[in-house]
């Protein structure tokens, strides 16, 4: 059999509110695949799965979009899904994870996409996305998507064009979807690179008075959001790649046999390698943005110290005439210079010279 194909394209962060999907739109596609080829005439998943169980060949691939609880309960009864898996699919907004339920694999993925923006100041989000859930057994695979950024139709079309790949069974579908999602991560981190460079340039080239530190915080928040979607996927992919010993929590239950084939594991290792690259890039961005926050805070602190020194310098200069004015404002009766004709202009000259000398001293010490 030839190698499993690789995917591409984008996706994004789950929305706070779960979208409402009409019942007739919940089932996106349903098909029976025998020896990697699609069998015609199976739109209803109940009929399709009954056919597979009766013949003992092939598997069912059911695609759903934000199903309701009633719809998912029906799917769970037909395919014999665990109640906890059904509940997680309906509730959505799950952390990326892998669970094994009585011979079936339940994998949760967060899909991410880059949000194009005209300028950094007007951007509210840098990444956005949805959620993909996969339930795979020996003779079925169910893909459930939440959000509009998953683009799983392209994954199905690419797999159907390669029947030798689909012949691997449900594991081939899980690999194709996981590879597609991880490729979207690569695309997102690549598109974020120029923005991070621009933020860095602004921090070090823009005047402190024009520095907008909110942009740095925005990118820091978005990078952390991307990290929360990507990092937890490392261990599930490690199990799928065959690293059982390092991840004992995933050993409970009976796994689907096709996931233990060496060819499948080899391609999951390739996906995990790409995920490691993404995690490293995200870590690099996070470190750079943290350094930029420190640099911006340092620049603001230096500017504040400079401003305080200037204010203190002018206050010191103003203190000289203020002190003299305070002395003459006491209205003492015996002040010898009051009877001198040139006392007033001489006093003004002395004050002027004193202020000039003090200004030169402060200027030479770079306080002004």
From TrEMBL:
Short name of any one Pfam family annotated for the protein: CorA
Subcellular location: Cell membrane
Keyword check for Transport: yes
Matches recorded under InterPro entries: CorA_cytoplasmic_dom (IPR045861), CorA_TM1_TM2 (IPR045863), MgTranspt_CorA/ZnTranspt_ZntB (IPR002523)
Gene3D superfamilies: CorA soluble domain-like, Magnesium transport protein CorA, transmembrane region
Region called Disordered, residue ranges: 1-20
Main location class: membrane
Keyword Transmembrane helix: yes
Domain of life (superkingdom): Bacteria
Topological type in the membrane: Multi-pass membrane protein
Keyword terms, alphabetized: Cell membrane, Membrane, Transmembrane, Transmembrane helix, Transport
Transmembrane regions: 311-330, 342-362
Family per similarity comment: Belongs to the CorA metal ion transporter (MIT) (TC 1.A.35) family.
The protein's name in its UniProt record: Magnesium and cobalt transport protein CorA
Species name: Gordonia phosphorivorans
Lineage summary: Bacteria, Bacillati, Actinomycetota, Actinomycetes, Mycobacteriales
């Amino acid at each position: 059999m030839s190698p499993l194909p690789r995917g591409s394209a984008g996706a994004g962060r789950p929305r706070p509110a779960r979208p409402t999907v009409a019942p007739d739109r919940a089932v996106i596609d349903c098909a029976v695949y025998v020896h990697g080829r699609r069998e015609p005439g199976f739109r209803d998943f109940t009929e399709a799965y009954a056919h597979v169980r009766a013949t003992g060949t092939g598997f069912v691939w059911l695609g759903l979009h934000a199903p309701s609880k009633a719809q998912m309960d029906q799917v769970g009864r037909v395919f014999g899904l665990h109640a906890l898996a059904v509940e997680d699919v309906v509730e959505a907004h799950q952390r990326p994870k892998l669970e094994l339920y009585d011979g079936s694999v339940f994998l949760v993925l967060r899909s991410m996409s880059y949000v194009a923006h005209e300028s950094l100041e007007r951007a509210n989000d840098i990444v956005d996305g949805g959620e993909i859930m996969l339930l795979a057994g020996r003779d079925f695979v169910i893909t459930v998507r939440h959000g509009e950024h998953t683009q799983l139709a392209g994954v199905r079309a690419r797999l159907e064009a390669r029947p030798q790949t689909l012949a691997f069974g449900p594991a081939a579908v899980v690999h194709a979807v996981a590879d597609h999602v991880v490729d979207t991560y690569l695309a997102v981190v690549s598109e974020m690179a120029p923005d991070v460079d621009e933020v860095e340039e602004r921090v070090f080239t823009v005047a402190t008075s024009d520095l907008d530190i909110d942009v740095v915080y925005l990118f820091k928040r978005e990078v952390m959001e991307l990290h929360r979607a990507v990092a937890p996927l490392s261990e599930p992919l490690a199990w799928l790649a065959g690293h059982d010993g390092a991840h004992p929590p995933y050993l409970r239950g009976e796994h689907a046999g096709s996931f233990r084939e060496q060819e499948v594991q080899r391609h999951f290792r390739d996906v995990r390698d790409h995920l490691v690259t993404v995690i490293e890039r995200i870590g690099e961005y996070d470190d750079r943005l943290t350094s930029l926050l420190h640099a911006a805070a340092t620049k603001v602190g230096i500017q504040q110290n400079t401003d305080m020194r200037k204010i203190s310098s002018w206050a010191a200069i103003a203190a000289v005439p203020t002190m003299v004015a305070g002395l003459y404002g006491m209205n003492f009766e015996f002040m010898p210079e009051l009877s001198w004709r040139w006392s007033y202009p001489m006093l003004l000259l002395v004050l002027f010279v004193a202020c000039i000398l003090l200004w030169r001293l402060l200027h030479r010490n770079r306080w002004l």
